[in-house]
């Protein structure tokens, strides 16, 4: 009899579990630092929705687009997926995402600019989550060894480059690793006040003498060994690793990643200070990549998937995520007014949050929407890499990109 009761209980549990709706949501590169917060979200959503079993899956940034396309093709997509703004452009164009149906009240929870970033042809394709203006974390000990004043970090791109050269010349260490891999040069053009497309949005115009000069600046730095060899291959990931290892003087980063430095090397974190990202006066803007949650094509229960996306990005959860990361900022109106964002401190994370909070007014996601984004972005990336490798002149590379773009636009 006892054995029968145990078996019956197990059967009842299995049946109850089988009757529950199985949901997944995917995030980008948050494990293991933010496991506790993601698991808290899972528990809270399941509590509010007792018929749901929710699973969190973290995916590396380099893999998430292909993994999502494969899941959509197989008919097994997650209910909600975390994507950056530039990823969402490509995936919308590939038909991999579902539009959301938000009420006016739901739309008003978010700032208009971030919500517009995920709006395509009048359709809301995602809800904004977190963002953070770039800052410059710098190693005060390397500054001193190079003869630079740690109390007076560079305030312009020009002085940052000059400091980087001085650091390399005097210490043998790299001064900085510019974020120029992939299509990031498009954002540097805009930060410098240089257009990418004409006013109609139908022609590429980024091969002017000013554009060529900007690209030439970075090609020369690369050619003369002032920036690391794997700048074009591994970008930000390599920069963070080098900085944490004490081999890079300045890390241009979203302030949330200063936590990674603290986690990887407390000694380096201890000599780190944070300065504002050097504004290019001509552009007076900081490209600030926005993260959001989308609903992929083919989800079985679209209303429930949308409910999950809205839950993950609501006021309470956005504020809590910011408190845990200590340096990201919400895209919801109410959460952003919390006094937490104005608190300073002596440690690098607190400095990063305070510095970034003062830069929010200049933050803008500069991602552009244009047809065939995946194809055109590859043309851009390949040609910029050819210029950096000395296979093409900067002018030839930009001329070739513009010609290819305009044939497609």
| General form | globular
Uncertain runs are: none
Cα end-to-end separation: 75 Å
Largest sheet: 7 strands, mixed
Average pLDDT figure: 92
What is the compact description of this entry?
By secondary structure, the chain is of the alpha+beta class. It is built from 18 helices and 14 strands.
Q: Would you spell out the secondary-structure blueprint of this structure?
A:
Elements: H1 2-19, E1 21-28, H2 35-48, E2 52-59, H3 64-74, E3 80-84, H4 85-93, E4 97-98, H5 104-107, H6 112-117, E5 119-120, E6 123-124, E7 127-131, E8 135-139, H7 140-145, H8 157-171, H9 184-191, H10 209-223, H11 231-244, E9 250-253, H12 258-264, H13 266-270, E10 272-276, E11 286-287, E12 290-296, H14 302-312, H15 315-325, E13 329-330, H16 348-359, E14 363-364, H17 373-388, H18 394-408
Describe the structure using short key phrases.
single chain; 409 residues; alpha+beta; seven-stranded mixed β-sheet; three-stranded antiparallel β-sheet; 48% helix; 14% strand; globular
Describe it.
The protein has 409 residues and is α+β, with helices and mostly antiparallel strands. Helix content is 48%, strand content 14%. It has 18 helices and 14 strands. Strands 1, 2, 3, 4, 7, 12 and 13 form a 7-stranded mixed β-sheet that branches. A hairpin with a 2-residue loop joins strand 5 and strand 6. Helix 11 (231-244) crosses helix 12 (258-264) and helix 17 (373-388) runs antiparallel to helix 18. The longest helix is centred in the N-terminal third of the chain and has 18 residues, at 2-19.
């Amino acid at each position: 009899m006892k054995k029968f009761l145990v078996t019956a209980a197990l059967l009842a549990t299995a049946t109850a579990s089988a009757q529950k709706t199985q949901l997944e949501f995917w995030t980008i590169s948050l494990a293991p630092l933010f496991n506790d917060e993601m698991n808290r979200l899972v528990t809270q959503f399941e509590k509010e929705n007792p018929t749901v079993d929710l699973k969190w899956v973290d995916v590396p940034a380099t893999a998430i687009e292909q993994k999502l396309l494969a899941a959509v093709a197989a008919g097994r997509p997650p209910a909600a997926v975390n994507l950056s703004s530039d990823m969402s452009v490509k995936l919308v164009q590939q038909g991999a995402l579902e539009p959301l149906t938000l009420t006016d009240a739901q739309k008003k929870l978010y700032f208009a600019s971030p919500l517009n970033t995920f709006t395509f042809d009048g359709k809301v394709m995602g809800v904004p989550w977190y963002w953070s203006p770039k800052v410059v974390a710098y190693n005060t000990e390397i500054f001193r060894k190079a003869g630079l004043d740690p109390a007076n970090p560079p305030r312009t791109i020009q002085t940052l480059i000059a400091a980087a050269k001085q650091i390399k010349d005097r210490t043998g260490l790299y001064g900085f690793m510019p974020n120029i891999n992939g299509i990031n040069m498009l954002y540097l053009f805009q930060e410098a006040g240089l257009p990418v497309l004409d006013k109609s949005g139908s022609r590429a115009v980024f091969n002017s003498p000013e554009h060529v000069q900007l690209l030439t600046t970075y090609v020369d730095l690369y050619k003369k060994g002032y920036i690391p060899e794997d700048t074009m291959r591994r970008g930000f990931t390599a920069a963070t690793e080098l900085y944490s290892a004490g081999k890079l003087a300045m890390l241009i980063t979203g302030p949330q990643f200063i936590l990674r430095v603290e986690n990887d090397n407390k000694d380096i974190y201890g000599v780190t200070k944070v300065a504002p990202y050097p504004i290019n006066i001509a552009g007076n803007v900081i490209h600030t990549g926005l993260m959001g949650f989308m609903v992929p094509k083919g989800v079985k229960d679209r209303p429930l998937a949308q409910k999950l996306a809205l839950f993950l990005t609501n006021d309470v959860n956005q504020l809590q995520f910011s408190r845990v990361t200590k340096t990201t900022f919400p895209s919801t109106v109410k959460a952003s007014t919390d006094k937490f964002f104005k608190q300073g401190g002596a440690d690098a994370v607190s400095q990063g949050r305070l510095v970034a909070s003062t830069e929010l007014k200049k933050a803008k996601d500069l991602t552009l929407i244009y047809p065939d984004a995946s194809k055109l972005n590859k043309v851009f990336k390949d040609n910029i890499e050819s210029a950096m490798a000395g296979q093409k002149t900067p002018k030839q590379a930009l001329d070739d990109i513009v010609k290819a773009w305009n044939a497609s636009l």
